[in-house]
Amino acid sequence: MSESPVPHEPPIYRRIADGLRARIHAGELRDGDRLPGENALMAEYAIARATARQALAVLINEGLAVPKRGSGVYVRQFKPIRRHGARRLSREQWGQGRAIWDADARGRPFTVDRVEVALERAAEDVARVLDSDQVWVRRRRYLVDARPVQLATSYFPAHLVEGSAITLTDTGPGGVYARLAELGVPPAHFTEEVRARMPNPRESNLLDLPGGTPVIVIARTAYASDGRPVELNEMILDSAAYVLQYDFDA
Amino acid sequence: MSESPVPHEPPIYRRIADGLRARIHAGELRDGDRLPGENALMAEYAIARATARQALAVLINEGLAVPKRGSGVYVRQFKPIRRHGARRLSREQWGQGRAIWDADARGRPFTVDRVEVALERAAEDVARVLDSDQVWVRRRRYLVDARPVQLATSYFPAHLVEGSAITLTDTGPGGVYARLAELGVPPAHFTEEVRARMPNPRESNLLDLPGGTPVIVIARTAYASDGRPVELNEMILDSAAYVLQYDFDA
DNA sequence: GAGTGGTCTAGACCACCCC
DNA sequence: GGGTGGTCTAGACCACTCT
Fold it and tell me: Is residue B247 less than 8 Å (CB to CB) from chain A?
Protein backbone atom coordinates (compact mmCIF):
# COMPACT_ATOMS: atom_id res chain seq x y z
CA MET A 1 0.00 0.00 0.00
CA SER A 2 2.99 2.32 0.40
CA GLU A 3 3.34 5.07 -2.16
CA SER A 4 6.65 5.01 -3.95
CA PRO A 5 8.57 8.02 -2.63
CA VAL A 6 8.37 10.36 -5.60
CA PRO A 7 10.90 13.19 -5.49
CA HIS A 8 8.74 16.28 -5.06
CA GLU A 9 8.72 18.96 -7.66
CA PRO A 10 10.09 22.18 -6.25
CA PRO A 11 7.43 24.81 -5.47
CA ILE A 12 6.50 27.29 -8.17
CA TYR A 13 8.40 30.20 -6.68
CA ARG A 14 11.57 28.08 -6.68
CA ARG A 15 11.13 27.03 -10.27
CA ILE A 16 10.66 30.65 -11.32
CA ALA A 17 13.73 31.69 -9.36
CA ASP A 18 15.73 28.84 -10.88
CA GLY A 19 14.70 29.93 -14.35
CA LEU A 20 15.73 33.52 -13.77
CA ARG A 21 19.01 32.43 -12.19
CA ALA A 22 19.79 30.28 -15.21
CA ARG A 23 19.13 33.20 -17.53
CA ILE A 24 21.50 35.35 -15.49
CA HIS A 25 24.26 32.75 -15.54
CA ALA A 26 23.73 32.13 -19.23
CA GLY A 27 24.42 35.80 -19.83
CA GLU A 28 20.95 36.38 -21.22
CA LEU A 29 20.37 38.80 -18.35
CA ARG A 30 23.46 40.85 -17.63
CA ASP A 31 24.81 43.28 -15.05
CA GLY A 32 22.31 46.01 -14.47
CA ASP A 33 19.56 44.50 -16.63
CA ARG A 34 16.03 44.69 -15.34
CA LEU A 35 14.40 41.41 -14.34
CA PRO A 36 10.71 40.71 -15.04
CA GLY A 37 8.82 42.49 -12.25
CA GLU A 38 6.11 41.24 -9.95
CA ASN A 39 3.32 42.06 -12.37
CA ALA A 40 5.12 40.41 -15.27
CA LEU A 41 5.63 37.21 -13.29
CA MET A 42 2.02 37.21 -12.10
CA ALA A 43 0.81 37.38 -15.69
CA GLU A 44 3.32 34.96 -17.15
CA TYR A 45 2.82 32.22 -14.58
CA ALA A 46 -0.72 33.01 -13.45
CA ILE A 47 0.29 33.31 -9.81
CA ALA A 48 -0.55 35.62 -6.93
CA ARG A 49 1.47 38.65 -6.15
CA ALA A 50 3.01 37.21 -3.00
CA THR A 51 4.29 34.21 -4.94
CA ALA A 52 5.96 36.42 -7.51
CA ARG A 53 7.54 38.39 -4.70
CA GLN A 54 8.76 35.18 -3.14
CA ALA A 55 10.51 34.17 -6.35
CA LEU A 56 12.27 37.50 -6.62
CA ALA A 57 13.16 37.37 -2.92
CA VAL A 58 15.14 34.20 -3.55
CA LEU A 59 17.42 35.95 -6.02
CA ILE A 60 17.67 39.03 -3.84
CA ASN A 61 18.69 36.95 -0.85
CA GLU A 62 21.28 35.18 -2.98
CA GLY A 63 22.76 38.53 -3.81
CA LEU A 64 22.12 38.02 -7.53
CA ALA A 65 19.55 40.81 -7.82
CA VAL A 66 18.88 44.19 -6.24
CA PRO A 67 15.42 45.74 -5.88
CA LYS A 68 14.95 49.42 -6.64
CA ARG A 69 11.77 50.97 -5.31
CA GLY A 70 9.41 52.29 -7.87
CA SER A 71 11.61 51.03 -10.64
CA GLY A 72 12.27 47.31 -10.77
CA VAL A 73 14.58 44.48 -9.81
CA TYR A 74 17.98 44.47 -11.42
CA VAL A 75 20.83 42.03 -11.99
CA ARG A 76 23.68 42.75 -9.68
CA GLN A 77 27.37 43.03 -10.41
CA PHE A 78 30.61 42.09 -8.67
CA LYS A 79 33.62 44.30 -9.24
CA PRO A 80 35.83 43.79 -6.26
CA ILE A 81 38.79 45.60 -4.79
CA ARG A 82 41.80 43.35 -4.32
CA ARG A 83 43.16 43.53 -0.80
CA HIS A 84 46.57 41.98 -0.30
CA GLY A 85 47.38 40.31 2.99
CA ALA A 86 51.06 39.78 3.65
CA ARG A 87 52.35 42.03 0.92
CA ARG A 88 50.41 45.10 1.81
CA LEU A 89 51.80 45.12 5.31
CA SER A 90 55.42 44.83 4.22
CA ARG A 91 57.90 47.20 5.81
CA GLU A 92 58.42 49.19 2.63
CA GLN A 93 54.88 50.35 2.73
CA TRP A 94 54.49 51.62 6.23
CA GLY A 95 58.14 52.54 6.76
CA GLN A 96 58.14 55.46 4.36
CA GLY A 97 55.29 57.75 5.15
CA ARG A 98 52.57 55.74 3.45
CA ALA A 99 49.40 54.64 5.15
CA ILE A 100 48.54 51.01 4.73
CA TRP A 101 45.28 51.68 3.01
CA ASP A 102 47.03 53.24 0.04
CA ALA A 103 47.71 49.82 -1.39
CA ASP A 104 44.09 48.77 -1.21
CA ALA A 105 42.39 51.25 -3.42
CA ARG A 106 44.80 50.48 -6.28
CA GLY A 107 44.84 53.94 -7.71
CA ARG A 108 41.12 54.47 -7.22
CA PRO A 109 40.32 57.45 -5.03
CA PHE A 110 39.21 56.54 -1.53
CA THR A 111 38.04 58.58 1.40
CA VAL A 112 37.75 58.14 5.11
CA ASP A 113 34.60 59.00 6.92
CA ARG A 114 33.01 59.03 10.36
CA VAL A 115 36.30 59.05 12.22
CA GLU A 116 35.84 58.58 15.94
CA VAL A 117 38.62 58.41 18.50
CA ALA A 118 37.91 57.61 22.13
CA LEU A 119 39.33 56.16 25.31
CA GLU A 120 37.14 53.27 26.37
CA ARG A 121 36.90 50.39 28.73
CA ALA A 122 37.75 47.30 26.68
CA ALA A 123 35.20 44.61 25.99
CA GLU A 124 36.08 41.22 27.40
CA ASP A 125 37.53 39.66 24.25
CA VAL A 126 39.45 42.79 23.32
CA ALA A 127 40.90 43.02 26.81
CA ARG A 128 42.01 39.41 26.62
CA VAL A 129 43.79 39.83 23.30
CA LEU A 130 45.46 43.13 24.12
CA ASP A 131 46.04 42.31 27.79
CA SER A 132 44.70 45.72 28.75
CA ASP A 133 41.46 46.96 30.30
CA GLN A 134 41.65 50.48 28.96
CA VAL A 135 41.98 50.97 25.22
CA TRP A 136 42.15 53.80 22.74
CA VAL A 137 39.64 53.09 20.03
CA ARG A 138 39.75 54.44 16.49
CA ARG A 139 36.65 53.91 14.35
CA ARG A 140 36.26 54.96 10.73
CA ARG A 141 34.57 54.11 7.48
CA TYR A 142 36.26 53.77 4.10
CA LEU A 143 34.65 54.72 0.81
CA VAL A 144 35.73 54.06 -2.75
CA ASP A 145 34.04 56.00 -5.52
CA ALA A 146 31.84 57.56 -2.82
CA ARG A 147 30.53 54.11 -1.96
CA PRO A 148 31.11 52.76 1.56
CA VAL A 149 33.08 49.52 1.42
CA GLN A 150 34.56 48.96 4.87
CA LEU A 151 34.12 49.73 8.55
CA ALA A 152 37.19 49.50 10.72
CA THR A 153 37.75 49.66 14.46
CA SER A 154 41.27 49.67 15.91
CA TYR A 155 42.05 49.08 19.56
CA PHE A 156 45.32 50.06 21.24
CA PRO A 157 46.43 49.38 24.83
CA ALA A 158 45.92 52.74 26.54
CA HIS A 159 49.16 52.71 28.54
CA LEU A 160 51.11 52.09 25.34
CA VAL A 161 49.83 54.89 23.11
CA GLU A 162 48.87 57.55 25.67
CA GLY A 163 50.15 60.95 24.56
CA SER A 164 50.95 59.88 21.00
CA ALA A 165 49.21 61.06 17.86
CA ILE A 166 47.35 57.75 17.85
CA THR A 167 44.96 59.38 20.29
CA LEU A 168 44.30 62.25 17.87
CA THR A 169 42.01 62.33 14.88
CA ASP A 170 44.93 63.04 12.57
CA THR A 171 47.67 60.49 13.16
CA GLY A 172 50.15 62.19 10.84
CA PRO A 173 52.29 60.81 8.01
CA GLY A 174 52.58 57.04 7.90
CA GLY A 175 49.54 56.58 10.07
CA VAL A 176 49.36 54.62 13.28
CA TYR A 177 52.07 52.14 12.28
CA ALA A 178 54.63 54.91 11.92
CA ARG A 179 53.58 56.19 15.36
CA LEU A 180 53.91 52.74 16.89
CA ALA A 181 57.41 52.54 15.41
CA GLU A 182 58.29 55.86 17.05
CA LEU A 183 57.03 54.47 20.34
CA GLY A 184 59.57 51.67 20.00
CA VAL A 185 57.04 48.94 19.19
CA PRO A 186 56.90 48.66 15.41
CA PRO A 187 54.62 45.82 14.38
CA ALA A 188 56.70 42.76 13.56
CA HIS A 189 54.06 40.10 13.19
CA PHE A 190 50.43 39.97 12.16
CA THR A 191 47.67 37.46 12.65
CA GLU A 192 44.50 37.80 10.63
CA GLU A 193 41.37 35.86 11.47
CA VAL A 194 38.79 35.88 8.70
CA ARG A 195 35.16 34.85 8.73
CA ALA A 196 31.99 35.69 6.86
CA ARG A 197 28.42 36.21 8.02
CA MET A 198 25.33 38.24 7.24
CA PRO A 199 25.49 41.85 8.42
CA ASN A 200 23.57 43.21 11.38
CA PRO A 201 21.29 46.21 10.76
CA ARG A 202 23.93 48.73 11.81
CA GLU A 203 26.50 47.31 9.41
CA SER A 204 23.87 47.02 6.72
CA ASN A 205 23.09 50.69 7.12
CA LEU A 206 26.61 52.05 7.31
CA LEU A 207 27.75 49.99 4.32
CA ASP A 208 24.51 50.58 2.41
CA LEU A 209 24.23 46.86 1.67
CA PRO A 210 21.42 45.44 -0.43
CA GLY A 211 19.85 42.20 0.77
CA GLY A 212 21.80 39.02 0.22
CA THR A 213 25.19 40.61 0.78
CA PRO A 214 27.38 38.97 3.42
CA VAL A 215 30.18 40.79 5.16
CA ILE A 216 33.73 39.56 5.60
CA VAL A 217 35.05 40.13 9.10
CA ILE A 218 38.81 40.40 9.56
CA ALA A 219 40.28 40.57 13.03
CA ARG A 220 43.92 41.53 12.70
CA THR A 221 46.26 41.51 15.65
CA ALA A 222 49.63 43.25 15.35
CA TYR A 223 52.51 42.15 17.58
CA ALA A 224 55.77 43.90 18.39
CA SER A 225 59.00 41.94 17.98
CA ASP A 226 58.94 41.01 21.67
CA GLY A 227 55.54 39.37 21.15
CA ARG A 228 53.45 42.07 22.83
CA PRO A 229 50.17 42.80 21.05
CA VAL A 230 50.06 46.45 20.03
CA GLU A 231 46.89 46.72 17.97
CA LEU A 232 43.68 44.84 17.34
CA ASN A 233 41.89 45.94 14.20
CA GLU A 234 38.43 44.63 13.37
CA MET A 235 37.38 45.25 9.80
CA ILE A 236 33.91 44.72 8.35
CA LEU A 237 34.03 44.44 4.56
CA ASP A 238 31.26 44.53 1.99
CA SER A 239 31.81 41.10 0.45
CA ALA A 240 30.60 42.35 -2.93
CA ALA A 241 33.42 44.90 -2.94
CA TYR A 242 36.41 42.79 -1.96
CA VAL A 243 38.65 39.92 -2.83
CA LEU A 244 41.33 39.11 -0.26
CA GLN A 245 44.67 37.82 -1.43
CA TYR A 246 47.26 36.03 0.67
CA ASP A 247 50.63 34.92 -0.66
CA PHE A 248 53.02 32.63 1.13
CA ASP A 249 55.79 30.15 0.49
CA ALA A 250 55.65 26.47 1.27
CA MET B 1 2.95 73.78 3.44
CA SER B 2 5.77 71.25 3.37
CA GLU B 3 5.56 68.45 5.89
CA SER B 4 8.62 68.21 8.06
CA PRO B 5 10.38 65.02 6.99
CA VAL B 6 9.65 62.78 9.93
CA PRO B 7 11.95 59.76 10.18
CA HIS B 8 9.61 56.86 9.51
CA GLU B 9 9.03 54.22 12.10
CA PRO B 10 10.28 50.88 10.88
CA PRO B 11 7.53 48.49 9.77
CA ILE B 12 6.08 46.11 12.34
CA TYR B 13 7.90 43.05 11.07
CA ARG B 14 11.21 44.88 11.46
CA ARG B 15 10.43 45.98 14.99
CA ILE B 16 9.54 42.42 15.95
CA ALA B 17 12.74 41.12 14.36
CA ASP B 18 14.76 43.81 16.14
CA GLY B 19 13.23 42.80 19.44
CA LEU B 20 14.03 39.14 18.95
CA ARG B 21 17.55 39.96 17.79
CA ALA B 22 18.12 42.04 20.90
CA ARG B 23 16.96 39.18 23.10
CA ILE B 24 19.38 36.84 21.34
CA HIS B 25 22.32 39.19 21.75
CA ALA B 26 21.40 39.86 25.35
CA GLY B 27 21.70 36.15 26.00
CA GLU B 28 18.06 35.85 26.96
CA LEU B 29 17.64 33.47 24.04
CA ARG B 30 20.63 31.17 23.68
CA ASP B 31 22.06 28.66 21.25
CA GLY B 32 19.42 26.13 20.34
CA ASP B 33 16.57 27.86 22.16
CA ARG B 34 13.23 27.98 20.46
CA LEU B 35 12.00 31.38 19.30
CA PRO B 36 8.33 32.40 19.56
CA GLY B 37 6.65 30.77 16.56
CA GLU B 38 4.34 32.25 13.96
CA ASN B 39 1.23 31.64 16.03
CA ALA B 40 2.80 33.15 19.13
CA LEU B 41 3.81 36.29 17.26
CA MET B 42 0.37 36.59 15.64
CA ALA B 43 -1.26 36.52 19.06
CA GLU B 44 1.25 38.73 20.83
CA TYR B 45 1.28 41.50 18.24
CA ALA B 46 -2.17 41.01 16.69
CA ILE B 47 -0.76 40.61 13.20
CA ALA B 48 -1.43 38.38 10.22
CA ARG B 49 0.41 35.18 9.66
CA ALA B 50 2.43 36.52 6.71
CA THR B 51 3.70 39.38 8.81
CA ALA B 52 4.87 37.07 11.57
CA ARG B 53 6.62 34.96 8.94
CA GLN B 54 8.27 38.04 7.56
CA ALA B 55 9.69 38.93 10.96
CA LEU B 56 11.13 35.45 11.42
CA ALA B 57 12.46 35.50 7.86
CA VAL B 58 14.61 38.50 8.74
CA LEU B 59 16.43 36.56 11.46
CA ILE B 60 16.68 33.47 9.30
CA ASN B 61 18.21 35.46 6.46
CA GLU B 62 20.66 37.00 8.90
CA GLY B 63 21.77 33.53 9.87
CA LEU B 64 20.74 34.12 13.49
CA ALA B 65 17.93 31.56 13.45
CA VAL B 66 17.19 28.25 11.78
CA PRO B 67 13.68 26.99 10.99
CA LYS B 68 12.83 23.35 11.64
CA ARG B 69 9.71 22.10 9.92
CA GLY B 70 6.96 20.97 12.15
CA SER B 71 8.92 22.02 15.18
CA GLY B 72 9.85 25.67 15.44
CA VAL B 73 12.48 28.31 14.80
CA TYR B 74 15.65 28.04 16.80
CA VAL B 75 18.59 30.23 17.73
CA ARG B 76 21.64 29.28 15.78
CA GLN B 77 25.17 28.68 16.95
CA PHE B 78 28.65 29.34 15.61
CA LYS B 79 31.39 26.89 16.54
CA PRO B 80 33.95 27.17 13.81
CA ILE B 81 36.88 25.09 12.69
CA ARG B 82 40.11 27.05 12.57
CA ARG B 83 41.84 26.74 9.22
CA HIS B 84 45.42 27.98 9.14
CA GLY B 85 46.72 29.57 5.97
CA ALA B 86 50.48 29.77 5.76
CA ARG B 87 51.26 27.44 8.60
CA ARG B 88 49.16 24.51 7.47
CA LEU B 89 50.94 24.34 4.16
CA SER B 90 54.41 24.33 5.65
CA ARG B 91 56.82 21.74 4.35
CA GLU B 92 56.79 19.73 7.56
CA GLN B 93 53.19 18.88 7.03
CA TRP B 94 53.07 17.67 3.49
CA GLY B 95 56.64 16.39 3.35
CA GLN B 96 56.11 13.53 5.77
CA GLY B 97 53.18 11.49 4.69
CA ARG B 98 50.47 13.72 6.11
CA ALA B 99 47.60 15.07 4.11
CA ILE B 100 47.00 18.76 4.45
CA TRP B 101 43.55 18.41 5.83
CA ASP B 102 44.83 16.76 8.99
CA ALA B 103 45.64 20.11 10.47
CA ASP B 104 42.19 21.49 9.89
CA ALA B 105 40.02 19.18 11.86
CA ARG B 106 42.14 19.72 14.97
CA GLY B 107 41.74 16.24 16.28
CA ARG B 108 38.10 16.01 15.35
CA PRO B 109 37.33 13.12 13.05
CA PHE B 110 36.73 14.13 9.46
CA THR B 111 35.72 12.18 6.41
CA VAL B 112 35.91 12.63 2.68
CA ASP B 113 32.93 12.03 0.53
CA ARG B 114 31.75 12.11 -3.07
CA VAL B 115 35.21 11.80 -4.55
CA GLU B 116 35.21 12.29 -8.30
CA VAL B 117 38.27 12.20 -10.52
CA ALA B 118 38.04 13.05 -14.20
CA LEU B 119 39.93 14.35 -17.19
CA GLU B 120 38.13 17.43 -18.49
CA ARG B 121 38.41 20.31 -20.85
CA ALA B 122 39.29 23.31 -18.69
CA ALA B 123 36.90 26.23 -18.27
CA GLU B 124 38.23 29.50 -19.56
CA ASP B 125 39.45 30.95 -16.27
CA VAL B 126 40.98 27.67 -15.13
CA ALA B 127 42.78 27.29 -18.44
CA ARG B 128 44.18 30.80 -18.13
CA VAL B 129 45.53 30.24 -14.60
CA LEU B 130 47.00 26.81 -15.26
CA ASP B 131 48.06 27.56 -18.84
CA SER B 132 46.53 24.27 -19.96
CA ASP B 133 43.39 23.32 -21.86
CA GLN B 134 43.13 19.78 -20.54
CA VAL B 135 43.01 19.29 -16.79
CA TRP B 136 42.62 16.47 -14.32
CA VAL B 137 39.91 17.42 -11.91
CA ARG B 138 39.50 16.08 -8.37
CA ARG B 139 36.24 16.89 -6.60
CA ARG B 140 35.36 15.90 -3.06
CA ARG B 141 33.39 16.90 -0.02
CA TYR B 142 34.69 17.12 3.53
CA LEU B 143 32.63 16.33 6.60
CA VAL B 144 33.36 16.92 10.28
CA ASP B 145 31.20 15.15 12.82
CA ALA B 146 29.20 13.76 9.89
CA ARG B 147 28.31 17.31 8.90
CA PRO B 148 29.41 18.58 5.47
CA VAL B 149 31.60 21.63 5.85
CA GLN B 150 33.53 22.05 2.61
CA LEU B 151 33.44 21.32 -1.11
CA ALA B 152 36.75 21.25 -2.93
CA THR B 153 37.71 21.03 -6.57
CA SER B 154 41.35 20.69 -7.60
CA TYR B 155 42.58 21.20 -11.14
CA PHE B 156 45.95 19.92 -12.45
CA PRO B 157 47.49 20.49 -15.88
CA ALA B 158 46.89 17.18 -17.65
CA HIS B 159 50.32 16.91 -19.27
CA LEU B 160 51.95 17.38 -15.86
CA VAL B 161 50.19 14.71 -13.82
CA GLU B 162 49.31 12.14 -16.49
CA GLY B 163 50.15 8.65 -15.26
CA SER B 164 50.63 9.65 -11.61
CA ALA B 165 48.44 8.64 -8.69
CA ILE B 166 46.89 12.10 -8.86
CA THR B 167 44.65 10.66 -11.58
CA LEU B 168 43.48 7.90 -9.26
CA THR B 169 40.87 8.02 -6.54
CA ASP B 170 43.43 7.07 -3.92
CA THR B 171 46.42 9.35 -4.20
CA GLY B 172 48.47 7.47 -1.62
CA PRO B 173 50.37 8.68 1.46
CA GLY B 174 50.96 12.39 1.63
CA GLY B 175 48.26 13.10 -0.88
CA VAL B 176 48.62 15.07 -4.09
CA TYR B 177 51.40 17.29 -2.77
CA ALA B 178 53.66 14.33 -2.13
CA ARG B 179 52.90 13.11 -5.66
CA LEU B 180 53.70 16.52 -7.14
CA ALA B 181 57.01 16.42 -5.28
CA GLU B 182 57.78 13.04 -6.83
CA LEU B 183 57.03 14.51 -10.23
CA GLY B 184 59.75 17.08 -9.60
CA VAL B 185 57.40 20.01 -9.08
CA PRO B 186 56.84 20.34 -5.31
CA PRO B 187 54.71 23.38 -4.54
CA ALA B 188 56.94 26.24 -3.48
CA HIS B 189 54.52 29.12 -3.39
CA PHE B 190 50.82 29.57 -2.79
CA THR B 191 48.38 32.31 -3.58
CA GLU B 192 44.97 32.26 -1.94
CA GLU B 193 42.15 34.47 -3.12
CA VAL B 194 39.27 34.71 -0.68
CA ARG B 195 35.77 36.03 -1.11
CA ALA B 196 32.34 35.49 0.38
CA ARG B 197 28.91 35.28 -1.18
CA MET B 198 25.59 33.52 -0.80
CA PRO B 199 25.58 29.90 -1.96
CA ASN B 200 23.90 28.71 -5.12
CA PRO B 201 21.31 25.91 -4.79
CA ARG B 202 23.82 23.16 -5.54
CA GLU B 203 26.21 24.37 -2.85
CA SER B 204 23.33 24.91 -0.48
CA ASN B 205 22.29 21.31 -0.98
CA LEU B 206 25.67 19.65 -0.77
CA LEU B 207 26.64 21.62 2.34
CA ASP B 208 23.16 21.33 3.87
CA LEU B 209 23.12 25.05 4.57
CA PRO B 210 20.21 26.72 6.33
CA GLY B 211 19.08 30.07 4.96
CA GLY B 212 21.22 33.07 5.77
CA THR B 213 24.50 31.21 5.61
CA PRO B 214 27.11 32.63 3.25
CA VAL B 215 29.93 30.56 1.82
CA ILE B 216 33.59 31.48 1.82
CA VAL B 217 35.25 30.79 -1.51
CA ILE B 218 38.99 30.19 -1.53
CA ALA B 219 40.83 29.86 -4.83
CA ARG B 220 44.31 28.60 -4.06
CA THR B 221 46.97 28.39 -6.75
CA ALA B 222 50.12 26.36 -6.07
CA TYR B 223 53.31 27.20 -7.96
CA ALA B 224 56.47 25.17 -8.40
CA SER B 225 59.80 26.84 -7.62
CA ASP B 226 60.21 27.76 -11.28
CA GLY B 227 56.96 29.68 -11.13
CA ARG B 228 54.86 27.17 -13.06
CA PRO B 229 51.33 26.75 -11.68
CA VAL B 230 50.80 23.11 -10.69
CA GLU B 231 47.41 23.14 -9.00
CA LEU B 232 44.32 25.29 -8.73
CA ASN B 233 42.09 24.38 -5.80
CA GLU B 234 38.69 25.98 -5.39
CA MET B 235 37.18 25.48 -1.94
CA ILE B 236 33.63 26.31 -0.92
CA LEU B 237 33.35 26.61 2.86
CA ASP B 238 30.31 26.77 5.10
CA SER B 239 30.97 30.15 6.70
CA ALA B 240 29.29 29.03 9.91
CA ALA B 241 31.84 26.23 10.23
CA TYR B 242 35.10 28.08 9.61
CA VAL B 243 37.48 30.73 10.74
CA LEU B 244 40.49 31.30 8.50
CA GLN B 245 43.77 32.29 10.05
CA TYR B 246 46.73 33.85 8.28
CA ASP B 247 50.02 34.65 9.99
CA PHE B 248 52.78 36.72 8.49
CA ASP B 249 55.65 38.93 9.46
CA ALA B 250 55.95 42.60 8.68
C1' DG C 1 -4.02 14.64 16.76
C1' DA C 2 -2.29 19.03 17.68
C1' DG C 3 1.06 22.22 16.54
C1' DT C 4 4.57 23.85 13.46
C1' DG C 5 6.55 25.85 9.44
C1' DG C 6 5.98 25.91 3.89
C1' DT C 7 3.34 27.36 0.16
C1' DC C 8 -0.27 29.96 -2.07
C1' DT C 9 -4.45 32.97 -3.19
C1' DA C 10 -6.89 37.50 -3.52
C1' DG C 11 -7.32 41.25 -2.18
C1' DA C 12 -5.60 46.32 -0.03
C1' DC C 13 -3.00 50.79 0.72
C1' DC C 14 1.38 53.09 0.54
C1' DA C 15 5.86 55.45 -1.04
C1' DC C 16 8.65 56.00 -4.62
C1' DC C 17 10.35 56.53 -9.52
C1' DC C 18 9.85 57.74 -14.17
C1' DC C 19 7.52 59.80 -17.79
C1' DG D 1 -0.47 59.37 -13.66
C1' DG D 2 0.76 54.84 -14.09
C1' DG D 3 3.88 51.38 -12.85
C1' DT D 4 7.00 49.62 -9.40
C1' DG D 5 8.29 47.47 -5.17
C1' DG D 6 7.08 47.52 0.28
C1' DT D 7 3.91 46.30 3.69
C1' DC D 8 -0.13 44.00 5.46
C1' DT D 9 -4.64 41.34 6.07
C1' DA D 10 -7.48 37.04 6.13
C1' DG D 11 -8.02 33.30 4.72
C1' DA D 12 -6.52 28.09 2.76
C1' DC D 13 -4.21 23.43 2.27
C1' DC D 14 -0.07 20.83 2.90
C1' DA D 15 3.99 18.12 4.99
C1' DC D 16 6.29 17.49 8.80
C1' DT D 17 7.38 16.79 13.97
C1' DC D 18 6.32 15.63 18.42
C1' DT D 19 3.93 13.03 21.73
Answer: yes
